[in-house]
Batch of 2 targets.
Target 1
Amino acid sequence: DAKTTQPNSMESNEEEPVHLPCNHSTISGTDYIHWYRQLPSQGPEYVIHGLTSNVNNRMASLAIAEDRKSSTLILHRATLRDAAVYYCILNRDDKIIFGKGTRLHILP
Amino acid sequence: ETGVTQTPRHLVMGMTNKKSLKCEQHLGHNAMYWYKQSAKKPLELMFVYSLEERVENNSVPSRFSPECPNSSHLFLHLHTLQPEDSALYLCASSQDGGGTPNEKLFFGSGTQLSVL
């Protein structure tokens, strides 16, 4: 399985931007980078995904390194509702395999 | 409303009981999945169905038996479970499930299972 490495936890202040890093040094050319998040007592929800170019949507931005060995999920203005576990996943052959993710704490 | 509904939300069962978890998706997707989430462990993929055919079975013990009668419904039949099977069981769906790596998964809220 394609492996990703994320910090176990991070903290951020409310209303400030958050940059969540992910390393995926064994990424192959056809692996998409996906991000999901899991709010307390809920199933994971899709956040964003990309292949090579940076991506933006209403929830977040995804910055992908030129060599694709790392990526960063950017929450532009964190709110308390963004406190969750964020998973960075390489989608290979449509197998979405979750790691431990980063637990994001938002400080009011 | 995520479009994927799981029932029940909570289930307590004894080791000799037989119970079933139900998942229904209202998104018109063709693929459905069961994941298991134990405390302090990553989500584990259990089963994948694409167009009602099982395409993935990740060495799951036979005490877990999936059933996919149509593309909108997925069941997980449970019998003679062990206490270590206590976990959050999550259902998900995706458009195709046929090996397209930019597919998105849509999850239900899960069934929290406790085996006594």
Target 2
Amino acid sequence: GAVVSQHPSRVICKSGTSVKIECRSLDFQATTMFWYRQFPKKSLMLMATSNEGSKATYEQGVEKDKFLINHASLTLSTLTVTSAHPEDSSFYICSAEPLKDGTYEQYFGPGTRLTVT
Amino acid sequence: QKEVEQDPGPLSVPEGAIVSLNCTYSNSAFQYFMWYRQYSRKGPELLMYTYSSGNKEDGRFTAQVDKSSKYISLFIRDSQPSDSATYLCAMSPRGSQGNLIFGKGTKLSVKP
């Protein structure tokens, strides 16, 4: 149980284009999903917290107009990197928190490797 | 001082060894402590989840939390080559939904 999928797993795009990444919780419902970015040899950095049916909360330094997040349902959140640039190349990972009181377990997707040329 | 400190390694051990992985932290508000395993080019996988101080055992894995010292550990017994991965500690303040703070991760290599 507690499986999170991401699509696509890898994407290469040209500078200036937009890329959409999907995050799905396959066997549980999640009111909250999280988007992280991980650079090589660095830890995961939280970008934003996404709650179903409401606007995402972005961490300091993360541009909300560049990284658009939509949490359309209890099992799906999307991250759109708009007007991507080479410095946006990174490993993007989502996680989902099951609907359980009193626990803060997060289950991670397999990640999406974005390369902007 | 960073909130969570973790030695990045790399740590190399022979198969069958006991592995000890550690993190220290500075924020006394942290109440939830997790260990994740991340294989190369994959997302982190939740291994252990502990609330407050104490020990928790699951198979070959034991997680320890010492809140007085602000120190957490993950022990792996009878280590296997398949345990080779990066291990990330993560923690969260009580009442802060999902706000996980991660260590940088320790890269472990178990040699056959």
